[in-house]
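Appendix B. One record, verbatim.
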Amino acid sequence: MATPEQVWALYDATGGLGPAVLLGAFAGLRVAESCGLRREDVAFLAREIRPAVQYPAEPLKTEMSKTPLPTADSLMTEISPARWRSTRTR
């Protein structure tokens, strides 16, 4: 298992895939689920991730994969569209 420091180092090193790293490490999403996550699958106000498809728009592996995932405020902040746009422009 990766330490939080290792996860953040990977996040910093992955460029455009940073949110997928965080979603895998802290929300438990598979790589295909993280990369297939769409903006409408994230309920920011409810603090939930609601996977619906996996990359590249394929059905999820199991019905259980559709279970909404309660998510910490800190993760929601990190994956928010506004934050990600401003981080990528640095």
